[in-house]
Specification:
Largest sheet: 4 strands, mixed
Number of domains: 3
Oligomer: single chain
Distance between the termini: 21 Å
Strand content: 15-25%
Structural class: alpha+beta
Number of helices: 10
Strand order of the largest sheet: 1-8-3-2
Order of helices and strands: HEHHEEHEHEEHEHHHHE
């Protein structure tokens, strides 16, 4: 997966330059390319009489699912909340901790110690997790609506640290926007390897932020939330098509 992501960084580069960037042997590169071709994630092509590899639609989709793209295809919200309630005995403490960890990974937030909530319907995913840890008799999933004067966005801010998350996104933009602008304004006066390393650093940092982002519907986010802007900033600079000369 990491190798395919590296391919997605490149636009048109010689084999020697590509190998130098990745600090891998030519044999390792050729072996990885063959595996990607066998899986249908890259294909051979020609341009101007040169033999090339290019990333297929399947390969692009694999790159987009690697943690940089947003988790939700749609953020439409009907105002309902999905609750996960559990009362797991102390004798199964380790399973209880694993359940909480998996709920966090889904983006489900903790309302109370044993009551978790999300605006998204994760019933199917939660049931799979519960079955895996044999916790069926201890866990219930409900659907509800908020019936108090608090606004939905205020309610969400009590569950998730959206302000802290927004600061991380803002700091990401402040850190990388000037550096990206420099490359955009004067692309011929920069080291290609330097840009390659910058893109990789951005991907790693943004992936870390996305892991803690529940990616809530727009109605639940604070004003001026920078999450979408960060992803767009990075996507504008990533080319998902490889044209690699060998």
């Amino acid at each position: 997966m990491e190798f395919l992501n590296d391919l997605g960084e490149l636009t048109d580069v010689s084999a020697k330059a590509f190998i130098r960037r990745l600090e891998k042997s030519q044999k390792a590169i050729q072996s990885a390319l063959k595996r990607l071709e066998d899986r249908g994630e890259i294909e051979r092509a020609e341009r101007g009489g040169r033999a090339l590899f290019q990333i297929t639609q399947k390969g692009k989709e694999r790159i987009n699912s690697s943690g940089l793209s947003l988790k939700r295809k749609s953020r439409d919200w009907d105002g309902r909340w999905y609750l996960v309630s559990f009362d797991i005995p102390e004798t199964q403490k380790s399973s209880r901790n694993l359940l909480r960890r998996r709920l966090l990974m889904l983006g489900i937030g903790k309302l109370q110690r044993s009551l978790w909530v999300s605006p998204y319907d994760y019933t199917r995913e939660v049931r799979k997790i519960v079955a895996h840890y044999h916790l069926e008799k201890y866990v219930e999933v409900f659907c509800s609506q908020l019936l108090n004067p608090k606004s939905p966005s205020f309610f969400a801010s009590q569950i998730w640290d959206l302000e802290g998350l927004n600061r991380r996104y803002s700091q990401f933009i402040e850190k990388y926007q000037p550096r990206l602008s420099k490359f955009k304004e004067d692309p011929n006066n920069s080291e290609d390897l330097e840009l390659f390393k910058l893109k990789r650093a951005m991907k790693e940092e943004l992936s870390s932020i996305l892991l803690s982002d529940p990616q809530l519907p727009a109605e639940l986010l604070p004003k001026g939330f920078q999450g979408e802007g960060c992803v767009k900033l990075l996507s504008q600079r990533l080319n998902q098509l490889l044209k690699l000369l060998f």
